[in-house]
Specification:
The complex is a heterodimer. Chain A has a single domain, classed as Nuclear Transport Factor 2, Chain: A (Roll). Chain A is about 20% helix and about 45% strand. Chain A has a 6-stranded mixed sheet with strand order 2-1-6-5-4-3. Chain A is globular. By secondary structure, chain B is of the alpha+beta class. Chain B has 2 domains: about 100 residues, Rieske Iron-sulfur Protein (3-layer Sandwich); about 220 residues, Alpha-Beta Complex (Naphthalene 1,2-dioxygenase Alpha Subunit, Chain A, domain 1), CATH 3.90.380. Helices cover about 35% and strands about 25% of the residues of chain B. In chain B, strands 13, 14, 15, 16, 17, 18, 19, 20, 22 and 23 form a 10-stranded antiparallel sheet that branches. In chain B, strands 6-5-4-7 form a 4-stranded antiparallel sheet, with no helix packed on it. A 3-stranded antiparallel sheet of chain B has the order 1-2-21. Classes of the chains: A alpha+beta, B alpha+beta. At the A-B interface, helix 3 and strand 7 of A face strand 14, helix 9, helix 13 and helix 14 of B. Strand 7 of chain A pairs parallel with strand 14 of chain B, so a sheet runs across the interface.
Protein backbone atom coordinates (compact mmCIF):
# COMPACT_ATOMS: atom_id res chain seq x y z
CA UNK A 1 0.00 0.00 0.00
CA UNK A 2 1.46 3.40 -0.82
CA UNK A 3 1.84 6.00 1.91
CA UNK A 4 -0.95 8.23 0.62
CA UNK A 5 -3.40 5.38 0.79
CA UNK A 6 -2.22 4.29 4.24
CA UNK A 7 -2.59 7.80 5.60
CA UNK A 8 -6.06 8.19 4.14
CA UNK A 9 -7.19 4.88 5.62
CA UNK A 10 -5.81 5.95 9.00
CA UNK A 11 -7.65 9.28 8.96
CA UNK A 12 -10.90 7.60 7.95
CA UNK A 13 -10.50 5.17 10.83
CA UNK A 14 -9.84 8.04 13.26
CA UNK A 15 -13.13 9.70 12.26
CA UNK A 16 -15.03 6.43 12.19
CA UNK A 17 -13.99 5.56 15.76
CA UNK A 18 -15.41 8.89 16.91
CA UNK A 19 -18.68 8.33 15.07
CA UNK A 20 -18.95 4.81 16.54
CA UNK A 21 -18.10 6.14 20.05
CA UNK A 22 -15.20 3.74 20.38
CA UNK A 23 -13.51 6.15 22.75
CA UNK A 24 -10.70 3.97 24.10
CA UNK A 25 -9.75 2.73 20.63
CA UNK A 26 -9.71 6.34 19.48
CA UNK A 27 -7.47 7.43 22.40
CA UNK A 28 -5.16 4.52 21.58
CA UNK A 29 -4.47 6.10 18.19
CA UNK A 30 -2.37 8.68 20.06
CA UNK A 31 1.26 8.17 21.05
CA UNK A 32 1.95 8.30 24.81
CA UNK A 33 2.84 12.00 24.44
CA UNK A 34 0.14 12.64 21.84
CA UNK A 35 -2.00 15.79 22.00
CA UNK A 36 -5.44 16.60 20.68
CA UNK A 37 -5.70 20.34 20.11
CA UNK A 38 -8.45 22.65 18.90
CA UNK A 39 -7.24 26.28 18.99
CA UNK A 40 -9.71 29.17 19.33
CA UNK A 41 -8.59 30.41 15.93
CA UNK A 42 -6.13 29.60 13.15
CA UNK A 43 -3.49 32.14 14.27
CA UNK A 44 -2.42 30.08 17.32
CA UNK A 45 1.03 28.52 16.98
CA UNK A 46 1.14 26.23 20.02
CA UNK A 47 -1.34 24.37 22.18
CA UNK A 48 0.71 24.98 25.33
CA UNK A 49 -0.04 27.80 27.75
CA UNK A 50 -2.78 29.47 25.73
CA UNK A 51 -6.55 29.44 25.59
CA UNK A 52 -7.78 26.34 23.79
CA UNK A 53 -11.13 24.77 23.06
CA UNK A 54 -9.41 21.42 23.53
CA UNK A 55 -5.76 20.86 24.55
CA UNK A 56 -5.69 17.33 25.88
CA UNK A 57 -3.07 14.72 26.54
CA UNK A 58 -4.07 11.10 27.01
CA UNK A 59 -4.84 11.65 30.71
CA UNK A 60 -7.32 14.41 29.98
CA UNK A 61 -8.77 12.40 27.10
CA UNK A 62 -9.33 9.62 29.62
CA UNK A 63 -11.16 12.02 31.97
CA UNK A 64 -13.42 13.04 29.10
CA UNK A 65 -14.04 9.42 28.11
CA UNK A 66 -14.80 8.32 31.66
CA UNK A 67 -17.11 11.29 32.08
CA UNK A 68 -19.23 10.56 29.03
CA UNK A 69 -19.41 6.86 29.96
CA UNK A 70 -20.54 7.60 33.54
CA UNK A 71 -24.20 6.66 34.04
CA UNK A 72 -24.89 10.09 35.57
CA UNK A 73 -23.45 12.14 32.72
CA UNK A 74 -26.82 13.81 32.30
CA UNK A 75 -25.98 15.58 29.08
CA UNK A 76 -25.17 12.19 27.51
CA UNK A 77 -28.64 10.79 28.01
CA UNK A 78 -30.35 12.20 24.93
CA UNK A 79 -29.98 10.73 21.49
CA UNK A 80 -26.70 12.01 20.23
CA UNK A 81 -24.86 10.95 17.08
CA UNK A 82 -22.24 12.33 14.73
CA UNK A 83 -21.16 11.66 11.17
CA UNK A 84 -17.74 12.70 9.89
CA UNK A 85 -16.56 12.99 6.33
CA UNK A 86 -12.79 13.38 5.83
CA UNK A 87 -11.30 14.43 2.51
CA UNK A 88 -8.64 16.46 0.65
CA UNK A 89 -5.83 14.47 2.27
CA UNK A 90 -2.41 15.93 1.46
CA UNK A 91 0.91 14.71 2.83
CA UNK A 92 2.70 17.99 3.44
CA UNK A 93 6.04 16.95 4.86
CA UNK A 94 8.07 13.84 5.54
CA UNK A 95 10.66 14.31 8.28
CA UNK A 96 13.91 12.38 8.47
CA UNK A 97 12.73 11.14 11.87
CA UNK A 98 9.94 9.30 10.09
CA UNK A 99 7.26 11.74 11.24
CA UNK A 100 4.86 12.94 8.59
CA UNK A 101 2.64 15.99 8.47
CA UNK A 102 -0.73 15.62 6.88
CA UNK A 103 -3.47 18.10 6.13
CA UNK A 104 -7.06 17.21 5.40
CA UNK A 105 -10.54 18.66 5.60
CA UNK A 106 -13.43 17.35 7.66
CA UNK A 107 -17.13 17.93 7.92
CA UNK A 108 -19.07 16.71 10.92
CA UNK A 109 -22.82 16.66 11.24
CA UNK A 110 -24.14 16.24 14.76
CA UNK A 111 -27.62 15.30 15.89
CA UNK A 112 -28.63 15.96 19.48
CA UNK A 113 -32.28 15.30 20.22
CA UNK A 114 -33.95 17.07 17.28
CA UNK A 115 -31.17 19.59 16.71
CA UNK A 116 -28.64 19.34 13.91
CA UNK A 117 -25.32 21.20 13.99
CA UNK A 118 -22.51 21.31 11.47
CA UNK A 119 -18.84 21.69 12.22
CA UNK A 120 -16.21 21.77 9.51
CA UNK A 121 -12.59 22.69 9.06
CA UNK A 122 -9.07 21.41 8.64
CA UNK A 123 -7.22 18.62 10.38
CA UNK A 124 -3.42 18.87 10.68
CA UNK A 125 -1.93 15.59 11.79
CA UNK A 126 1.59 14.88 12.88
CA UNK A 127 1.91 11.13 12.59
CA UNK A 128 4.66 8.74 13.54
CA UNK A 129 5.04 5.08 12.63
CA UNK A 130 5.36 2.78 15.62
CA UNK A 131 5.63 -0.96 14.92
CA UNK A 132 4.30 -0.46 11.42
CA UNK A 133 1.27 1.45 12.68
CA UNK A 134 0.58 5.17 12.74
CA UNK A 135 0.40 6.98 16.02
CA UNK A 136 -0.86 10.56 16.42
CA UNK A 137 1.64 12.92 18.01
CA UNK A 138 -0.54 15.91 17.35
CA UNK A 139 -4.03 16.27 15.97
CA UNK A 140 -4.74 19.93 15.36
CA UNK A 141 -8.34 20.77 14.54
CA UNK A 142 -8.94 24.18 13.00
CA UNK A 143 -12.66 24.47 13.02
CA UNK A 144 -14.07 27.05 10.60
CA UNK A 145 -16.76 27.88 13.15
CA UNK A 146 -14.37 27.88 16.13
CA UNK A 147 -15.02 31.57 16.89
CA UNK A 148 -18.76 31.47 16.26
CA UNK A 149 -21.05 31.37 19.30
CA UNK A 150 -21.69 27.79 20.38
CA UNK A 151 -25.31 26.77 20.50
CA UNK A 152 -24.81 24.38 23.42
CA UNK A 153 -21.28 22.95 23.77
CA UNK A 154 -18.99 20.25 22.35
CA UNK A 155 -18.93 17.15 24.51
CA UNK A 156 -16.35 15.02 22.74
CA UNK A 157 -13.62 15.45 20.18
CA UNK A 158 -14.43 16.65 16.65
CA UNK B 1 -48.70 45.72 36.20
CA UNK B 2 -47.10 46.71 39.55
CA UNK B 3 -49.65 44.68 41.47
CA UNK B 4 -49.11 41.76 39.12
CA UNK B 5 -45.36 41.85 39.74
CA UNK B 6 -45.84 41.60 43.49
CA UNK B 7 -48.19 38.64 43.08
CA UNK B 8 -45.59 36.73 41.06
CA UNK B 9 -43.10 36.41 43.90
CA UNK B 10 -43.60 35.07 47.40
CA UNK B 11 -40.83 34.81 50.00
CA UNK B 12 -40.23 31.13 49.26
CA UNK B 13 -41.56 30.65 45.73
CA UNK B 14 -41.90 32.31 42.30
CA UNK B 15 -44.50 31.95 39.55
CA UNK B 16 -43.17 30.13 36.50
CA UNK B 17 -44.21 32.99 34.17
CA UNK B 18 -41.31 34.98 35.62
CA UNK B 19 -39.07 32.76 33.48
CA UNK B 20 -41.29 32.14 30.46
CA UNK B 21 -43.47 35.19 29.73
CA UNK B 22 -42.11 37.26 26.79
CA UNK B 23 -43.92 40.40 28.04
CA UNK B 24 -42.21 40.09 31.42
CA UNK B 25 -38.90 39.58 29.60
CA UNK B 26 -39.39 42.87 27.74
CA UNK B 27 -40.16 44.63 31.00
CA UNK B 28 -37.06 43.07 32.59
CA UNK B 29 -34.91 44.38 29.76
CA UNK B 30 -36.34 47.89 30.22
CA UNK B 31 -36.40 48.08 34.00
CA UNK B 32 -33.38 45.99 34.87
CA UNK B 33 -30.77 45.48 32.12
CA UNK B 34 -31.35 48.80 30.38
CA UNK B 35 -31.36 50.68 33.68
CA UNK B 36 -28.72 49.32 36.05
CA UNK B 37 -24.93 49.14 35.61
CA UNK B 38 -24.02 46.45 33.08
CA UNK B 39 -20.51 45.10 32.56
CA UNK B 40 -19.20 46.06 29.12
CA UNK B 41 -15.65 44.78 29.21
CA UNK B 42 -12.14 45.38 30.50
CA UNK B 43 -10.16 48.46 29.47
CA UNK B 44 -7.32 46.24 28.15
CA UNK B 45 -9.75 44.86 25.54
CA UNK B 46 -9.46 48.21 23.74
CA UNK B 47 -5.84 49.30 24.27
CA UNK B 48 -5.39 51.64 21.29
CA UNK B 49 -7.38 54.67 20.07
CA UNK B 50 -10.21 53.51 17.81
CA UNK B 51 -10.30 49.98 19.25
CA UNK B 52 -13.86 48.91 19.79
CA UNK B 53 -15.85 45.97 21.06
CA UNK B 54 -19.54 45.33 20.43
CA UNK B 55 -21.56 44.76 23.59
CA UNK B 56 -25.24 44.01 24.12
CA UNK B 57 -26.91 45.90 26.98
CA UNK B 58 -30.41 44.53 27.42
CA UNK B 59 -31.80 44.67 23.89
CA UNK B 60 -29.48 47.49 22.82
CA UNK B 61 -26.51 46.83 20.53
CA UNK B 62 -23.74 49.08 21.89
CA UNK B 63 -20.05 49.71 21.15
CA UNK B 64 -17.33 50.20 23.73
CA UNK B 65 -14.60 52.36 22.12
CA UNK B 66 -11.40 54.08 23.21
CA UNK B 67 -10.67 57.63 22.04
CA UNK B 68 -7.29 59.23 21.36
CA UNK B 69 -7.19 60.70 24.87
CA UNK B 70 -7.56 57.25 26.43
CA UNK B 71 -11.15 57.74 27.50
CA UNK B 72 -13.61 54.89 26.97
CA UNK B 73 -17.06 55.63 25.56
CA UNK B 74 -20.06 53.37 25.21
CA UNK B 75 -22.24 54.31 22.24
CA UNK B 76 -25.40 53.00 20.67
CA UNK B 77 -24.25 51.10 17.58
CA UNK B 78 -26.41 53.15 15.25
CA UNK B 79 -25.97 55.91 12.71
CA UNK B 80 -28.36 58.81 13.47
CA UNK B 81 -28.95 59.34 9.75
CA UNK B 82 -30.86 56.25 8.62
CA UNK B 83 -30.27 53.90 11.54
CA UNK B 84 -27.49 51.84 9.98
CA UNK B 85 -25.38 49.87 12.42
CA UNK B 86 -21.98 51.60 12.59
CA UNK B 87 -19.85 48.54 13.38
CA UNK B 88 -20.89 45.23 11.89
CA UNK B 89 -18.12 43.23 13.54
CA UNK B 90 -17.78 42.12 17.13
CA UNK B 91 -14.46 43.91 17.47
CA UNK B 92 -11.96 45.93 15.52
CA UNK B 93 -10.42 49.35 15.11
CA UNK B 94 -12.38 52.19 13.54
CA UNK B 95 -9.30 54.25 12.69
CA UNK B 96 -9.46 57.95 13.52
CA UNK B 97 -13.26 58.10 13.42
CA UNK B 98 -16.41 56.07 12.77
CA UNK B 99 -17.44 55.99 9.12
CA UNK B 100 -20.97 54.90 8.22
CA UNK B 101 -20.89 52.38 5.38
CA UNK B 102 -24.20 53.61 3.95
CA UNK B 103 -23.88 57.37 3.23
CA UNK B 104 -20.52 58.28 4.66
CA UNK B 105 -21.50 60.22 7.79
CA UNK B 106 -18.51 60.22 10.11
CA UNK B 107 -18.30 60.51 13.91
CA UNK B 108 -15.65 61.09 16.54
CA UNK B 109 -14.86 58.29 19.00
CA UNK B 110 -17.14 59.99 21.52
CA UNK B 111 -20.00 59.78 19.02
CA UNK B 112 -19.98 63.49 18.09
CA UNK B 113 -20.74 64.29 14.44
CA UNK B 114 -17.52 64.84 12.47
CA UNK B 115 -18.76 65.26 8.90
CA UNK B 116 -21.60 64.67 6.46
CA UNK B 117 -20.81 64.49 2.72
CA UNK B 118 -21.72 67.84 1.13
CA UNK B 119 -23.17 69.04 4.43
CA UNK B 120 -23.43 72.73 3.50
CA UNK B 121 -25.24 72.26 0.22
CA UNK B 122 -27.32 69.33 1.40
CA UNK B 123 -28.57 70.53 4.75
CA UNK B 124 -28.52 74.33 4.66
CA UNK B 125 -31.78 75.68 6.05
CA UNK B 126 -32.77 72.34 7.56
CA UNK B 127 -32.69 71.37 11.21
CA UNK B 128 -29.88 68.89 10.56
CA UNK B 129 -26.23 69.69 11.05
CA UNK B 130 -23.44 69.93 13.57
CA UNK B 131 -25.46 71.94 16.09
CA UNK B 132 -28.19 69.34 16.34
CA UNK B 133 -27.33 66.67 18.95
CA UNK B 134 -29.67 64.29 17.13
CA UNK B 135 -27.06 64.16 14.36
CA UNK B 136 -24.50 62.54 16.67
CA UNK B 137 -24.30 58.93 17.75
CA UNK B 138 -26.17 58.51 21.01
CA UNK B 139 -24.06 57.75 24.07
CA UNK B 140 -24.80 55.58 27.07
CA UNK B 141 -25.74 58.24 29.63
CA UNK B 142 -23.26 56.91 32.19
CA UNK B 143 -19.96 55.02 31.90
CA UNK B 144 -17.71 54.25 34.85
CA UNK B 145 -14.66 52.07 35.43
CA UNK B 146 -13.59 50.26 38.55
CA UNK B 147 -10.05 48.83 38.58
CA UNK B 148 -10.13 48.56 34.79
CA UNK B 149 -13.59 46.97 34.53
CA UNK B 150 -15.93 49.11 32.43
CA UNK B 151 -19.64 49.38 33.18
CA UNK B 152 -22.37 51.42 31.51
CA UNK B 153 -25.86 52.41 32.55
CA UNK B 154 -28.51 53.40 30.04
CA UNK B 155 -30.32 55.39 32.72
CA UNK B 156 -29.31 59.03 33.18
CA UNK B 157 -29.85 58.86 36.93
CA UNK B 158 -29.31 56.23 39.59
CA UNK B 159 -26.71 55.08 42.07
CA UNK B 160 -23.04 55.47 41.12
CA UNK B 161 -21.21 52.32 40.04
CA UNK B 162 -19.63 51.90 43.47
CA UNK B 163 -22.93 52.48 45.25
CA UNK B 164 -24.52 49.89 42.97
CA UNK B 165 -21.74 47.32 43.43
CA UNK B 166 -21.57 47.73 47.21
CA UNK B 167 -19.79 44.78 48.76
CA UNK B 168 -19.72 42.91 45.44
CA UNK B 169 -16.88 45.13 44.30
CA UNK B 170 -14.70 42.63 46.14
CA UNK B 171 -14.86 40.58 42.93
CA UNK B 172 -12.53 43.11 41.29
CA UNK B 173 -10.48 43.88 44.40
CA UNK B 174 -9.84 40.20 45.04
CA UNK B 175 -8.81 39.67 41.41
CA UNK B 176 -6.54 42.73 41.11
CA UNK B 177 -5.04 42.55 44.60
CA UNK B 178 -3.74 39.06 43.80
CA UNK B 179 -1.55 40.66 41.10
CA UNK B 180 1.84 41.91 42.31
CA UNK B 181 1.25 44.99 40.12
CA UNK B 182 -2.27 45.46 41.47
CA UNK B 183 -3.98 45.07 38.12
CA UNK B 184 -5.03 42.47 35.62
CA UNK B 185 -5.00 42.37 31.84
CA UNK B 186 -7.39 40.53 29.60
CA UNK B 187 -6.35 37.45 27.66
CA UNK B 188 -7.76 38.32 24.26
CA UNK B 189 -10.07 35.38 23.73
CA UNK B 190 -13.79 35.25 24.39
CA UNK B 191 -15.63 31.92 24.52
CA UNK B 192 -19.29 32.41 23.69
CA UNK B 193 -21.88 29.79 24.55
CA UNK B 194 -25.65 30.00 24.14
CA UNK B 195 -27.94 28.51 26.77
CA UNK B 196 -31.49 27.56 25.86
CA UNK B 197 -32.98 28.93 29.02
CA UNK B 198 -34.00 32.13 30.74
CA UNK B 199 -31.12 34.29 31.98
CA UNK B 200 -32.19 34.01 35.62
CA UNK B 201 -31.78 30.23 35.59
CA UNK B 202 -28.04 30.67 35.00
CA UNK B 203 -27.70 33.29 37.73
CA UNK B 204 -29.55 31.13 40.25
CA UNK B 205 -27.25 28.22 39.46
CA UNK B 206 -24.07 30.19 40.08
CA UNK B 207 -24.47 30.22 43.86
CA UNK B 208 -26.40 26.99 44.15
CA UNK B 209 -24.14 24.94 46.40
CA UNK B 210 -26.49 21.97 46.33
CA UNK B 211 -26.09 21.18 42.64
CA UNK B 212 -22.36 20.54 42.00
CA UNK B 213 -22.08 17.12 43.54
CA UNK B 214 -25.27 16.00 41.77
CA UNK B 215 -24.91 17.69 38.39
CA UNK B 216 -21.16 17.25 38.04
CA UNK B 217 -20.80 13.81 39.62
CA UNK B 218 -19.66 12.21 36.34
CA UNK B 219 -16.80 14.67 35.79
CA UNK B 220 -15.78 14.60 39.44
CA UNK B 221 -15.55 10.81 39.48
CA UNK B 222 -13.73 10.61 36.14
CA UNK B 223 -11.18 13.24 37.16
CA UNK B 224 -10.71 11.65 40.57
CA UNK B 225 -9.90 8.25 39.02
CA UNK B 226 -7.37 9.72 36.61
CA UNK B 227 -5.90 11.97 39.32
CA UNK B 228 -5.22 8.96 41.52
CA UNK B 229 -3.77 7.01 38.61
CA UNK B 230 -1.37 9.86 37.78
CA UNK B 231 -0.29 10.12 41.43
CA UNK B 232 0.22 6.35 41.62
CA UNK B 233 2.38 6.30 38.47
CA UNK B 234 4.37 9.35 39.55
CA UNK B 235 5.22 7.62 42.86
CA UNK B 236 5.84 10.65 45.06
CA UNK B 237 4.29 13.12 42.63
CA UNK B 238 0.76 14.43 42.39
CA UNK B 239 -1.53 15.28 39.51
CA UNK B 240 -1.72 18.92 38.41
CA UNK B 241 -4.01 21.15 40.46
CA UNK B 242 -6.46 21.25 37.55
CA UNK B 243 -7.44 17.63 38.30
CA UNK B 244 -8.23 18.64 41.84
CA UNK B 245 -10.49 21.43 40.57
CA UNK B 246 -12.50 18.79 38.72
CA UNK B 247 -12.35 15.91 41.21
CA UNK B 248 -13.67 18.22 43.94
CA UNK B 249 -17.09 17.83 42.32
CA UNK B 250 -17.06 14.24 43.54
CA UNK B 251 -14.86 14.44 46.65
CA UNK B 252 -16.75 17.43 48.09
CA UNK B 253 -19.92 15.44 48.68
CA UNK B 254 -23.32 17.03 48.94
CA UNK B 255 -23.25 17.29 52.76
CA UNK B 256 -19.89 19.12 52.72
CA UNK B 257 -21.28 21.94 50.63
CA UNK B 258 -23.25 23.05 53.66
CA UNK B 259 -19.92 24.18 55.14
CA UNK B 260 -19.76 26.90 52.48
CA UNK B 261 -21.56 30.16 53.04
CA UNK B 262 -23.41 32.66 50.93
CA UNK B 263 -23.59 36.37 51.65
CA UNK B 264 -26.54 38.10 50.07
CA UNK B 265 -26.50 41.84 49.46
CA UNK B 266 -28.84 44.58 48.25
CA UNK B 267 -29.44 44.84 44.46
CA UNK B 268 -29.38 41.01 44.18
CA UNK B 269 -25.60 40.62 44.46
CA UNK B 270 -24.23 37.52 46.20
CA UNK B 271 -20.99 35.93 47.29
CA UNK B 272 -20.32 32.21 47.67
CA UNK B 273 -17.38 31.72 50.01
CA UNK B 274 -14.92 28.83 49.84
CA UNK B 275 -12.51 28.15 47.05
CA UNK B 276 -11.45 24.69 45.99
CA UNK B 277 -7.71 24.35 46.44
CA UNK B 278 -7.25 27.60 48.30
CA UNK B 279 -3.63 28.26 49.24
CA UNK B 280 -1.89 25.10 48.07
CA UNK B 281 1.74 24.70 49.16
CA UNK B 282 3.31 23.62 45.87
CA UNK B 283 6.56 25.27 44.66
CA UNK B 284 4.74 27.48 42.10
CA UNK B 285 2.47 28.90 44.77
CA UNK B 286 5.36 29.44 47.17
CA UNK B 287 7.35 31.31 44.49
CA UNK B 288 4.33 33.52 43.88
CA UNK B 289 3.82 34.07 47.61
CA UNK B 290 7.41 35.31 47.85
CA UNK B 291 6.85 37.96 45.19
CA UNK B 292 3.60 39.01 46.82
CA UNK B 293 5.17 39.32 50.28
CA UNK B 294 8.00 41.40 48.82
CA UNK B 295 5.47 43.71 47.15
CA UNK B 296 2.84 44.02 49.84
CA UNK B 297 4.49 42.97 53.10
CA UNK B 298 3.49 39.94 55.14
CA UNK B 299 0.40 41.46 56.77
CA UNK B 300 -1.20 42.77 53.60
CA UNK B 301 -0.24 39.58 51.74
CA UNK B 302 -2.09 37.48 54.32
CA UNK B 303 -5.16 39.69 53.93
CA UNK B 304 -5.07 39.38 50.15
CA UNK B 305 -4.67 35.64 49.81
CA UNK B 306 -6.91 35.05 52.82
CA UNK B 307 -9.94 36.31 50.89
CA UNK B 308 -12.02 33.19 50.58
CA UNK B 309 -14.34 33.55 47.60
CA UNK B 310 -15.56 30.99 45.11
CA UNK B 311 -18.01 33.10 43.11
CA UNK B 312 -19.29 36.65 43.16
CA UNK B 313 -22.56 37.27 41.41
CA UNK B 314 -23.12 40.84 40.32
CA UNK B 315 -26.80 40.98 39.50
CA UNK B 316 -28.17 40.94 36.80
CA UNK B 317 -25.46 39.73 34.54
CA UNK B 318 -21.97 39.01 35.77
CA UNK B 319 -20.51 35.97 37.49
CA UNK B 320 -16.92 36.42 38.65
CA UNK B 321 -14.46 33.83 39.94
CA UNK B 322 -11.91 36.26 41.27
CA UNK B 323 -9.39 33.78 42.69
CA UNK B 324 -9.23 32.11 39.27
CA UNK B 325 -9.29 35.41 37.36
CA UNK B 326 -12.28 34.63 35.17
CA UNK B 327 -15.75 35.88 34.56
CA UNK B 328 -18.89 35.08 32.66
CA UNK B 329 -21.08 37.93 31.41
CA UNK B 330 -24.60 37.03 30.42
CA UNK B 331 -26.44 38.69 27.55
CA UNK B 332 -30.13 37.76 27.40
CA UNK B 333 -31.09 37.11 23.76
CA UNK B 334 -34.72 36.26 24.41
CA UNK B 335 -36.94 34.86 27.12
CA UNK B 336 -35.52 31.36 26.51
CA UNK B 337 -32.06 32.12 25.07
CA UNK B 338 -29.03 33.51 26.88
CA UNK B 339 -25.53 34.17 25.61
CA UNK B 340 -22.59 33.81 27.98
CA UNK B 341 -19.35 35.62 27.19
CA UNK B 342 -16.45 34.01 29.03
CA UNK B 343 -13.13 35.77 29.65
CA UNK B 344 -10.05 35.28 31.77
CA UNK B 345 -7.25 37.56 32.92
CA UNK B 346 -3.56 37.60 33.72
CA UNK B 347 -2.36 38.84 37.10
CA UNK B 348 0.20 41.48 36.12
CA UNK B 349 3.57 40.66 37.61
CA UNK B 350 2.69 37.10 38.63
CA UNK B 351 4.84 34.15 37.46
CA UNK B 352 3.67 32.14 34.46
CA UNK B 353 2.61 29.01 36.43
CA UNK B 354 0.02 31.10 38.30
CA UNK B 355 -1.45 32.18 34.97
CA UNK B 356 -1.50 28.56 33.84
CA UNK B 357 -3.63 27.67 36.82
CA UNK B 358 -6.41 30.00 35.79
CA UNK B 359 -5.88 28.99 32.17
CA UNK B 360 -6.44 25.33 33.05
CA UNK B 361 -9.74 26.19 34.70
CA UNK B 362 -10.71 28.41 31.77
CA UNK B 363 -10.02 25.66 29.25
CA UNK B 364 -11.43 22.70 31.18
CA UNK B 365 -14.47 24.32 32.78
CA UNK B 366 -15.30 27.34 30.67
CA UNK B 367 -14.36 26.49 27.07
CA UNK B 368 -17.00 25.41 24.54
CA UNK B 369 -15.68 21.85 25.10
CA UNK B 370 -16.24 22.19 28.85
CA UNK B 371 -16.01 19.10 30.99
CA UNK B 372 -18.34 20.71 33.52
CA UNK B 373 -20.85 23.17 32.11
CA UNK B 374 -22.25 20.66 29.58
CA UNK B 375 -24.33 19.16 32.37
CA UNK B 376 -25.37 22.57 33.71
CA UNK B 377 -26.63 23.62 30.28
CA UNK B 378 -28.53 20.35 30.00
CA UNK B 379 -30.22 21.14 33.34
CA UNK B 380 -30.95 24.74 32.35
CA UNK B 381 -32.66 23.54 29.17
CA UNK B 382 -34.67 20.97 31.10
CA UNK B 383 -35.65 23.59 33.67
CA UNK B 384 -36.89 25.92 31.01
CA UNK B 385 -38.80 23.12 29.26
CA UNK B 386 -40.36 22.02 32.55
CA UNK B 387 -41.57 25.54 33.26
CA UNK B 388 -43.85 25.30 30.22
CA UNK B 389 -45.72 22.53 32.00
CA UNK B 390 -49.13 22.95 33.63
CA UNK B 391 -47.92 20.40 36.16
CA UNK B 392 -47.20 23.23 38.59
CA UNK B 393 -47.24 27.00 38.71
CA UNK B 394 -44.37 27.67 41.09
CA UNK B 395 -40.62 27.38 41.36
CA UNK B 396 -39.70 26.91 45.02
CA UNK B 397 -36.80 28.36 46.99
CA UNK B 398 -37.59 27.00 50.44
CA UNK B 399 -34.31 25.41 51.49
CA UNK B 400 -33.25 26.68 54.95
CA UNK B 401 -35.99 29.32 54.81
CA UNK B 402 -36.27 31.24 58.05
CA UNK B 403 -32.80 30.19 59.21
CA UNK B 404 -30.82 32.89 57.38
CA UNK B 405 -29.20 35.56 59.50
CA UNK B 406 -29.94 39.17 58.57
CA UNK B 407 -27.55 41.91 59.68
CA UNK B 408 -27.67 45.49 58.35
CA UNK B 409 -29.42 44.48 55.15
CA UNK B 410 -27.02 41.59 54.47
CA UNK B 411 -28.43 38.07 54.57
CA UNK B 412 -25.96 35.39 55.60
CA UNK B 413 -26.71 31.72 55.52
CA UNK B 414 -26.78 30.12 58.97
CA UNK B 415 -23.93 27.99 60.29
CA UNK B 416 -23.56 24.84 58.20
CA UNK B 417 -26.39 25.87 55.89
CA UNK B 418 -24.40 26.82 52.78
CA UNK B 419 -26.90 25.06 50.56
CA UNK B 420 -29.59 27.52 51.64
CA UNK B 421 -31.62 28.92 48.75
CA UNK B 422 -31.01 32.38 50.20
CA UNK B 423 -29.25 33.60 46.99
CA UNK B 424 -32.33 32.80 44.89
CA UNK B 425 -34.61 34.49 47.41
CA UNK B 426 -32.30 37.49 47.45
CA UNK B 427 -32.21 37.74 43.66
CA UNK B 428 -36.00 37.59 43.44
CA UNK B 429 -36.30 40.26 46.12
CA UNK B 430 -34.15 42.55 43.99
CA UNK B 431 -36.09 41.54 40.89
CA UNK B 432 -39.39 42.65 42.43
CA UNK B 433 -37.89 45.99 43.45
CA UNK B 434 -36.46 46.63 39.98
CA UNK B 435 -39.57 45.47 38.17
CA UNK B 436 -41.82 47.85 40.08
CA UNK B 437 -39.85 50.63 38.37
Amino acid sequence: MDLQHQVEQFLYRQADLLDRKQWQDWIDLFTPDGIYWMPPDATYQTWDGQPAIFAEDRNLMTVRMKRVLHPDAWSQRPLWETSHVVSNVVIEKKHKSGEIEVRSRFHMMELRRDDVRHFAGAYSHRLVKVKNQFGIKLQRVDMTNAQAAYDYVLQVWV
Amino acid sequence: MERDIVSLVEPDRVRREVYTDPALFDLEMRRIHETVWIYCGHETQVPRPGDYYAVQIGRQPMIMVRDKDGRIHVLYNRCPHRGNMMCGDRRGNTGGFFNCSYHGWTFQHDGGLRSIPMMESGYEGTRFGRDNPDCSMKKAPRVERYRGFVFASLAARGPSLLEFLGESKIAFDDMCDRAPEGEVEIVPNCFRVIQHSNWKIFLENQLDALHPSVTHQSTGRAAHEVEQEIARKAKKGTAPLSYHMLSAFATVTVDKWDAFQTLNYPHGHCILTGYMGLRPQDPDTLAYDKIMIKTYGQKRFEEIVGVNIHHVLIYPGLSVQSALQQLRAIRPLGVDRTLTEIWHFRLKGAPEPIYRRSLAYYNLVNSPATLVNADDLENFWKCHQGLASDGGDWVTFGRHLGRDIEKNGVVETGPNMGTSEAPMRNQMKAWVQYMQG
